[in-house]
Amino acid sequence: MSLKTVICVLWAVCVGHTEGIQHGPNIIIMLMDDMGWGDLGVFGEPSKETPNLDVMAAQGMLFPNFYTANPLCSPSRAALLTGRLPVRNGFYTTNAHARNAYTPQEIVGGISQDEILLPELLKKKDYVSKIIGKWHLGHRSQYLPLKHGFDEWFGSPNCHFGPYNNSVRPNIPVYNNSEMTGRYYEEFEINVKTGESNLTQIYLKEGLDFISQQATAQRPFFLYWAPDATHSPVYASERFLGKSQRGRYGDAVMELDDSIGQILAHLVSLGIHNNTLVFFTSDNGAAVMSGAHQSGSNGPFLCGKETTFEGGMREPAIAWWPGRIPAGTVSYQLASVMDLFSTSLSVTGVLPPDDRVIDGLDLSPVLFNNSLLDRPIFYYRGNQMMAVRIGQYKVHYWTWSNSWEEYNTGINFCPGQEVPGVTTHTQEEHTMQPLIFHLGQDPGERYPIRLHGEGGVYDLYWDQPPGGDRNVMASLLRTSVAHLGITGPITAD
Ligand SMILES: *[C@@H]1O[C@H](CO)[C@@H](O)[C@H](O)[C@H]1NC(C)=O
Ligand SMILES: *[C@@H]1O[C@H](CO)[C@@H](O)[C@H](O)[C@H]1NC(C)=O
Ligand SMILES: *[C@@H]1O[C@H](CO)[C@@H](O)[C@H](O)[C@H]1NC(C)=O
Ligand SMILES: *[C@@H]1O[C@H](CO)[C@@H](O)[C@H](O)[C@H]1NC(C)=O
Ligand SMILES: *[C@@H]1O[C@H](CO)[C@@H](O)[C@H](O)[C@H]1NC(C)=O
């Protein structure tokens, strides 16, 4: 028996089991769509309409410093499932500087055949994987989830945009595994006038059924639960419509919160809660450009979706695994959706691919030992690294909200939050004199720490993707900070 086998056997014994065949922990990733950091009661949303998520946090670990890898759906989801930055996994664009890439129905591309997705790797340990809800990594047949490691799918390759007129631009299809089973607004109704749709209930039922089936068969599973009710046009079913103090967006949040409560309760009733890692987060910040009725809250953070300000990149996040993750804990770890890839592999005992750079970090020491790991966060918009965070310091090398052209049509990425020289409407390069914020003192990125002196030391390396350059980036930041005369160590809290 190899050392690895011994460790795996011991590990399986330690993790323990209710009964029957021992298998690794189940993984559930609950990924919300455009939900903001400030939408959860536990993060201070004043209406306190997320009792189930608040209890989930009380029973698990809350992450106030959790980030997406890109402030838009497709690249964010690609990063989660590959553990890699969009500049590595292909979900970026070079046809326009600093533009986020995604896959609307007109785009023929999708996730590269060369990328290895989490469910493909989990197959090595006989995991059954299902995606419920939005995929968004390409809608042509070769890009669909069942071609990239998932065994089952109920949902759609895209957002529920529309309704469209059938002949010229059809409504977005809904799939049941490899079969198209209908379309949004047709077989799967969304009433944009009243906001009524039963889709979250359907996604909930699909989730509960899948969990029951795998528990009965005693098979380990990975469930990627990705409902889209909080993406504009927001919707909720009749029982939730009109219930929120926050309007229709809040109704959608209440229904998702209720569903999450039901999924966790189901795990408990099946007795598999202590062998299931559940992670809740969102794909990008709230879409504040959609207006108050159609978007959520990014709490104290600047701007939202599409931008690399905190409102676009910082996500609500909770980890839950009763008996393994200490209840009622808060981790100030700087963490990323890409870490869900690495952490899922680690807890299931699957080795990550060794032929490519993985940007995710294994959060096991954080989850199980409350450790703090030293790591930067890189903020990308399309092909451009816009900013870096280390500890409490964030350095912007580029700033941009949206173009004057778009802004003048009434689309505002930072409504009510413009900061002169920061939320710029032209792409501004600050490499020679980076904009630095202390996110502990100034989470809203309103008061740049001014640099004095010449900026010559800052013009190195900023344009290159991280990797071997991480240490350079870190020392660059430390150099910037030292240059300011700020004393004391830069730590993760
Ligand atoms: C998991 O929970 C069940 C009861 O729900 C219990 O019998 C079992 O010992 C627990 N296992 C561990 C490892 O805590
Ligand atoms: C569908 O849209 C096209 C282009 O906007 C328009 O010419 C056509 O009349 C529309 N058809 C229906 C049935 O609405
Ligand atoms: C999807 O198809 C399966 C059979 O393949 C069926 O049991 C299930 O009810 C379908 N789901 C929905 C929501 O139609
Ligand atoms: C939702 O389901 C209920 C109960 O089956 C039904 O009465 C209602 O028409 C459905 N609503 C939509 C928008 O599909
Ligand atoms: C757990 O945390 C303690 C205290 O911070 C540290 O000394 C120890 O090395 C950690 N153990 C692991 C396995 O990370």
From TrEMBL:
Keywords: Calcium, Disulfide bond, Glycoprotein, Hydrolase, Lysosome, Metal-binding, Signal
Catalytic activity: Hydrolysis of the 6-sulfate groups of the N-acetyl-D-galactosamine 6-sulfate units of chondroitin sulfate and of the D-galactose 6-sulfate units of keratan sulfate
Required cofactor(s): Ca(2+)
GO MF terms, alphabetically ordered: arylsulfatase activity; metal ion binding; N-acetylgalactosamine-6-sulfatase activity
Description of how the protein assembles with itself and partners: Homodimer.
Principal location class: other
Gene3D superfamilies: 3.30.1120.10, Alkaline Phosphatase, subunit A (3.40.720.10)
Family classification: Belongs to the sulfatase family.
Cellular-component GO terms for this entry: lysosome
Entry keyword Mitochondrion: no
Protein name: N-acetylgalactosamine-6-sulfatase
Family annotation (SUPFAM superfamilies): Alkaline phosphatase-like
Ranges where the Sulfatase N-terminal domain occurs: 25-350
